[in-house]
């Protein structure tokens, strides 16, 4: 198999990008990382990162990639690890394809990342969807409270994402519309900045996901996984998860990928409602999931499937059957955040059982320690700053009081 290079674009912590770097680098594929200055850049620290470009801000990404692409004798495979960058690159999709083999469907980003479109597509595919609203004013937000007595969950809307602004929250989970209005004001957000849904009750373990790659040959590879704990209980991103075998999740994911005609990645999320036993559609992302490395021990590797599809499709597996492993995936920092919010869980022995079983760490890897060292150093330095500030304030108060 020929060894074309790969370019991975990362922003923020970079756990998703790090997974792509390691997946390809361990197979001897040269990987160049493009990262935004100010982030943790753990992917750039990887021993499998053979080159690194730092940009001052996301807006500089299109020009940086165009210049970088011209330096390769053969078009490298391009991966993007987050929605904001995909949206930013969408107007440049045609130009980028002249220099790269593009994994994510960035030319179709506006449609595929539009939450309203996602909900309509799921409904048309026969998948249940929670009641959803797109309020345009405080009055319309108040009307939701008169229509529904269930808890409400709000997420940044397509309007906010398309505008290129970043929300101060991923999700808000509130008891009612009044509490949601207060939460929005606390985050300096307006009703038109969010979509609002009725919350499907049940703990984090009710949330299932499908990791999918649909190849050029229209062959879909799908792995079903389950969240066990999220960074924020009830809402957030996976902190602890496990490979599962849920044919319904795999079928719904493959059905959506086929209906959309997507070539590339489509990672879906559903929640099982204990009240009626139905899986409700939550969202999809047209890029690898944050926890994509969960599939490795089960023989399912999104980054590698994409590489084979674009470089040598003969290397693709014959079907989507994977190892029936039930191992865990742990983002220690995210799980710590979960346990801080519900400290009583730390006293239950079952809470720690996954740490003692077969697992894949989000950042730690025995053959690639530098990203973990950088992540831990950054974590503790950030923890020390608030403590130092508190100590300084206390010292000033003592001086003033004396």
Estimate the helix proportion, in percent: 25-40%
Please, how many domains? 3
- Amount of beta strand: 15-25%
Name the CATH homologous superfamily of the largest domain: ATP-grasp fold, B domain
| Gyration radius, rounded | 22 Å
Shape: globular
Q: What is the SS-derived class?
A: alpha/beta
Report the major sheet: 7 strands, mixed
Distance, first to last CA: 75 Å
Main-sheet strand order equals 14-13-10-11-12-15-16
CATH class (first level) name of the largest domain: Alpha Beta
Just name the CATH architecture of the largest domain. 2-Layer Sandwich
Low-confidence stretches: 161-165, 386-402
pLDDT averaged over residues:
89
Strand tally: 16
Enter the CATH topology name of the largest domain: D-amino Acid Aminotransferase, Chain A, domain 1
User: How many helical elements?
Assistant: 15
General description of the model:
The chain is of the alpha/beta class. The protein folds into 3 domains: 6-112, Rossmann fold, CATH 3.40.50; 131-198, Dna Ligase, domain 1; 204-361, 2-Layer Sandwich (D-amino Acid Aminotransferase, Chain A, domain 1). 36% of the residues lie in helices and 23% in strands. The protein contains 15 helices and 16 strands. It has helices at residues 15-25, 42-45, 61-69, 83-89, 93-97, 109-112, 115-124, 138-147, 158-162, 177-186, 247-260, 302-311, 332-341, 349-352, 370-401, and strands spanning 6-10, 31-36, 49-55, 77-80, 101-102, 132-133, 152-156, 172-174, 194-198, 207-214, 220-232, 235-243, 264-272, 279-285, 328-330, 359-361. A 7-stranded mixed beta sheet has the order 14-13-10-11-12-15-16. The protein has a 5-stranded parallel beta sheet with strand order 3-2-1-4-5, sandwiched between helices. A 4-stranded antiparallel beta sheet has the order 6-9-7-8. Strand 10 and strand 11 (220-232) form a beta hairpin. Helix 1 (15-25) crosses helix 12 (302-311). The radius of gyration is 22 Å and the shape is globular. The model is unreliable at 161-165 and 386-402 (pLDDT under 50).
């Amino acid at each position: 198999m020929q060894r074309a290079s790969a370019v991975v674009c990362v922003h923020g912590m970079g756990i998703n990008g790090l997974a792509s770097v390691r997946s390809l680098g361990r197979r001897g594929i040269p990987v160049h990382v493009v990262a935004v200055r100010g982030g943790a850049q753990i992917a750039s620290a990887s021993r499998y990162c053979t080159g690194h470009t730092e940009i001052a801000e996301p807006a500089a990404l299109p020009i940086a990639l165009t210049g970088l692409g011209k330096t390769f004798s053969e078009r490298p495979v391009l991966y993007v690890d987050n929605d904001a960058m995909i949206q930013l690159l969408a107007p440049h999709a045609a130009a980028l394809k002249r220099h790269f083999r593009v994994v994510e469907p960035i030319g179709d980003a506006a449609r595929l990342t539009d939450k309203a479109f996602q909900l309509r597509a799921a409904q048309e595919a026969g998948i249940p969807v929670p009641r959803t609203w797109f309020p345009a004013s405080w009055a319309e937000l108040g009307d939701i409270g008169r229509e529904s007595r269930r808890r409400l969950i709000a997420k940044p809307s397509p309007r906010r994402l398309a505008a290129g602004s970043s929300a101060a929250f991923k999700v808000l989970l509130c008891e009612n519309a009044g509490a949601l209005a207060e939460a929005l004001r606390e985050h300096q957000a307006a009703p038109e900045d969010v979509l609002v849904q009725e919350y499907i009750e049940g703990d984090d373990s009710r949330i299932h996901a499908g990791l999918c790659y649909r190849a050029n040959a229209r062959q879909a590879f799908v792995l079903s996984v389950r969240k066990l704990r999220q960074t924020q209980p009830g809402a957030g991103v996976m902190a602890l998860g496990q490979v599962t075998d849920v044919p319904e999740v795999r079928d719904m994911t493959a059905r959506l990928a086929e209906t959309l005609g997507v070539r590339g990645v489509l990672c879906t999320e559903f929640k099982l409602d204990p009240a009626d036993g139905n899986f409700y559609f939550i969202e999809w992302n047209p890029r690898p999931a944050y926890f994509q490395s969960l599939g490795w021990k089960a023989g399912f590797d999104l980054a590698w499937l994409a590489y084979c599809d674009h470089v040598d499709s003969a290397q693709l597996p014959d079907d989507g059957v994977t190892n029936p492993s039930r191992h865990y995936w742990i983002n220690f920092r995210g799980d710590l955040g979960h346990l801080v919010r519900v400290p009583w869980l730390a006293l239950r022995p079952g809470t720690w059982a996954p740490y003692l079983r077969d697992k894949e760490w989000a950042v730690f890897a025995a053959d690639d320690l530098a990203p973990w060292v950088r992540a831990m150093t950054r974590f503790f330095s950030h923890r020390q700053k608030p403590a130092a500030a508190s100590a300084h304030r206390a010292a000033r108060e003592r001086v003033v009081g004396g």
